[in-house]
Amino acid sequence: MKTYFRANLQFMRPIQDAFPLLQTPKKIFIITHHKPDGDAIGSMLGLSYFLKKMGHEVAAIEPSEMPEFLTWMPGVDGVLNYEEKPLLCEAAFNEAALIFCLDFNDPSRTKYLTQQLEQTTTPKIIIDHHLFPKECWDYGMINSAKSSTSEMVYDFINLMGKNEMIDNNIATCLYTGLMTDTGSFRFSCTTDETHLMAADLKRKGLNHSIIHEHINDSWSLKRMQFLGYVLLEKMEIFPKEHAGLIALSKQDLKTFGMNINETEGLVNQPLCIKGVKFATLITERTDEVRLSFRSKGDYDVNAFARKYFNGGGHLNASGGKSNSSFLETVTYFKQILSEIHPR
Q1: In the chain, which stretches have pLDDT less than 50?
Q2: 311, CA 20 to 30 Å: which among 164, 272, 285, 336?
Q3: Under 8 Å CB-to-CB from 219, ≥6 apart: which residues?
Q4: How far apart are CA 306 and CA 133, in angstroms?
């Protein structure tokens, strides 16, 4: 199977140069980004299982709690939540001989370990598919053309020549990340390589239908009612700009007893409407306002997020933030709707 990746970034060495570091058992620290999604957790758990099979001692760290719909995944009981157990996480970081950073391209995306990651002399390996990485990694593979970090962890395993070590736990974790970051294989980031990976995991015995059931068919009644409220009362469509907006205040979430993790996927809802090419979800948090952007075709949400909301990501999926109030952010977004257009 072909494997494509970019390793010609001058500030770091290609990931193959780190393979000798993995030939003897080590304490390894794996971390993903704050507010982890399916790809973050799937890639972290898949890599963790793989490295443990190689004989390493692995500490898998999530900077904050994972969404409830991911808690069924194999290996979640061993994940350390930094917000719950910061001292244990710090100790694991300090004891590590090698650090893997997954699904983020800037240490600030971990929120709590930014300074430690920037200053540590412990070798850091990045595996990521986001644009414009910060120049602070020792080894890595970065490819924005890849569907997901989970697909890149699969590539990493193949590069090591250890495809036969992929068992059902690894396959389940990596498929979960692959499926969630591709929107069940419908987003434009899905490639022939993506499908070949899925086919290989199926040949190894993966039960994909159970994963789809866990992700898509495990909503609470309360969350389904919340979705109805959001679509009826909180979604706005702007036909001229081919845009859709959902804006949720803290009070909206409180009224239905929702936490912020339960807004996962809402940003995609306006894209189901004929003619909508650009969708935005604005959520009010305790300390800031967050924005999620999704699009179709040549509508570049990465450029939009970087220009107006100190964010970024991919062509069709990006995020940003605002230090203004919730209402000010919503008003400002509507004022710049005319800037939303194809490349």
Answers
A1: 1-8
A2: 272
A3: 227
A4: 13
Cross-strand partners of 312? 319
Q: So what's the pLDDT on residue 2?
A: 40
* Inter-residue contact 300 to 343 (CB < 8 Å): yes
The pLDDT value given to residue 9: 65
CA Rg value for the chain: 20
No. of helices (H) and no. of strands (E), the chain = 11, 13
**What is the rounded distance in angstroms from the CA atom of residue 144 to the CA atom of residue 299?**
16
Q: Where are the domains of the chain?
A: 13-215, 221-339
The count of C-alpha atoms lying within 13 angstroms of the C-alpha of 82, restricted to the half-sphere facing its C-beta, is: 23
- Do the Cβ atoms of 249 and 326 come closer than 8 Å? yes
Fold annotation for 13-215: inorganic pyrophosphatase (n-terminal core) (3.90.1640)
At 53, list the tokens: 């099979």
Residues 6+ apart with CB under 8 A from 34: 63, 64, 109, 110, 111, 112
Residue owning tokens 């005319």: 338
- Only one residue has tokens 């069940």, namely 184
**Structure tokens that stand for 296 in this block:** 């179709």
Treating both helix axes as pointing N-terminal to C-terminal, what angle do 208-216 and 168-181 enclose, rounded to 10 degrees?
A: 50
Residue 170 token pair: 């690894």
Whose tokens are 């390894």? That residue is: 28
Contact assessment for residue 97 and residue 23, using Cβ atoms and an 8 Å cutoff: no
Q: Cα–Cα distance between 9 and 36 in angstroms, integer?
A: 26
User: What secondary structure does DSSP assign to 36-91, as a single string?
Assistant: --HHHHHHHHHHHHHHHHTT-EEEEEESSPPPGGGTTSTTGGGPEETTT-HHHHHH
- What fold is seen in the domain 221-339? Diaminopimelate Epimerase; Chain A, domain 1 (3.10.310)
What is residue 232's DSSP assignment?
Answer: I
Helix (H) or strand (E) holding 128: strand 124-128
Laid out side by side, the sheet with 243-248 consists of 235-238, 243-248, 278-284, 289-295, 317-322, 312-313
